[in-house]
Design goal:
Helices cover about 55% and strands about 15% of the residues. The protein has helices at about 1-10, 15-20, 25-35, 60-65, 70-110, 115-130, 155-160, 160-175, 200-210; strands at about 40-45, 55-60, 135, 145, 180-185, 195-200. The strands form two sheets. Strands 3-4-6-5 form a four-stranded antiparallel β-sheet, covered by helices on one side. A two-stranded antiparallel sheet has the order 1-2.
């Protein structure tokens, strides 16, 4: 149930019951226990005439049930690097991590043809790394990469250059023929990170190649 709320966001008990294949009564009993434990909370929303609907969501403690890849230790190490070697040393460390990640991603994605195949496989790689990622397309045809969890969130809050580094890696590994924009960001209060990936028009690609 926590996983479903993490991946799909706030939901009613009825929606959770349908998704999990159990009765609404069983879901409400579980939600009551999770609420007592401080892992979930709710908001009542009146969407139409009639009784308001109760939407359940994860609390900070609920989000804390998911792996963080020792982010607290990572944040401490980053702070120590900055204190001992200064901002320049921290920049060099992040740059090294970026290059290593980029090499790994390129090795995995270069054999694939087309942006869609690469975005889908990138989502698989990120999921294996703990980001609970998924890929889809929106109504405009743009690719959407969603990361429902950030295993380095604590470290990223301490050093936001990590987030900028990841966005640069995505751009580099998917190539100059696409434009990537982050439109949801956990560090800005969103429940997930989401990226819109659009292919550039052919004339823009040709101009970029000439440059």
């Amino acid at each position: 149930m926590l996983y479903s709320l993490k991946v799909s966001g706030p939901q009613t008990a009825a929606a959770l019951a349908d998704r999990l294949g159990v009765t609404p009564v069983a879901v409400r009993q579980m939600l009551a226990r999770l609420h007592e434990d401080g892992l979930v909370d709710f908001e009542d929303s009146r969407e139409s005439v009639g009784r308001p609907k109760r939407f359940w969501h994860l609390t900070n403690a609920g989000n804390g049930q998911f792996p963080d890849n020792h982010a607290g230790l990572t944040a401490d190490i980053l702070a120590s690097v900055s204190a001992v070697f200064g901002d320049d040393g921290l920049d060099r460390l992040i740059s090294h991590r970026e290059k290593t990640t980029l090499t790994q991603y390129r090795t995995a994605l270069e054999p694939l043809d087309g942006v869609e195949a690469k975005v889908n496989h990138l989502a698989e790689i990120r999921s294996a790394e703990g980001y609970m990622a998924e890929a889809s397309r929106d109504e405009s045809g743009a690719f959407i990469l969603i990361e429902n969890h950030c295993p380095i969130c604590v470290a990223a809050r301490a050093c936001q250059k990590l987030c900028r580094s990841e966005l640069e890696v995505f751009q580099a590994v998917l190539g100059p023929n696409v434009e990537i924009k982050r439109f949801e960001h956990i560090l800005k209060g969103a429940r997930r990170c989401a990226y819109r990936i659009t292919e550039k028009p052919k004339n823009e690609r040709q101009f970029a190649m000439k440059l």
